[in-house]
Recover the amino acids of this structure.
């Protein structure tokens, strides 16, 4: 319990001293949500498959909703801010487990803050012919996916340099693009399928429960690996 309390102290300090996220987060999420909504609206109204760009945006943007757009996030390549932060916490000293728990709280706060803006923007552009409960299931389905990817983000944040983290994100974006392309070629739209499952099954959607369970397990697994590796990682230079 003390570690969670200490983690809350860390995240409160971060949120109060670096408020850039209050500007860039809403701007980016509102814009991304509007773009996703527009990519859904046209094809669905014409009875066609969803634009693969919608799949690419969902795959790319949803994980970013778990990150607050702070100065540290913007400067991670130039100044290797994540490594410097971890080195600072080690010198205090703050246990690795507490730092990890603060990152969990960071992710939760980000999903609540960014997610509300993102999904509200999508809903305002295109309601997907869903009622409130069905849309909540759709959100939770993609939230499970986003949690899984954030587990990978956390692992690289804690265990690699800023430059390595940059190359990983570039590779991930390319993978998202490839996935969206394969989805379009096969005629199996990821976003469209998640919409159909949400409408058909509601809270009993196996896709929703599968992504939430899988996302939780991947987050736990990557976080455990990151904690072990960080305990042995040299943070100097």
């Amino acid at each position: 319990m003390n570690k969670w309390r200490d983690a809350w102290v860390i995240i409160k300090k971060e949120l109060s001293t670096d408020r850039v996220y209050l500007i860039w987060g809403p701007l980016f999420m509102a814009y991304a949500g509007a773009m996703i909504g527009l990519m859904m609206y046209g094809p669905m109204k014409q009875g066609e498959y969803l634009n693969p760009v919608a799949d690419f945006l969902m795959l790319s943007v949803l994980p970013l909703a778990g990150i607050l757009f702070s100065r540290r996030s913007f400067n991670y390549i130039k100044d290797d801010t994540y490594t410097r932060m971890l080195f600072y916490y080690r010198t205090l000293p703050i246990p690795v487990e507490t730092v990890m728990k603060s990152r969990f709280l960071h992710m939760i706060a980000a999903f609540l803050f960014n997610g509300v803006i993102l999904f509200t923007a999508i809903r305002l552009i295109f309601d997907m012919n869903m009622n409130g409960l069905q849309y909540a299931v759709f959100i939770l389905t993609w939230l499970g996916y986003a949690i899984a990817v954030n587990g990978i983000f956390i692992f690289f944040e804690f265990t690699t340099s800023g430059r390595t983290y940059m190359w990983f994100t570039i590779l991930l974006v390319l993978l998202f693009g490839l996935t969206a392309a394969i989805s379009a070629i096969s005629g199996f739209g990821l976003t469209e399928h998640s919409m159909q499952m949400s409408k058909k099954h509601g809270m009993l959607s196996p896709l929703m429960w599968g992504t939430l369970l899988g996302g939780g397990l991947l987050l736990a697994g990557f976080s455990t690996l990151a904690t072990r590796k960080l305990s042995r990682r040299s943070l100097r230079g």
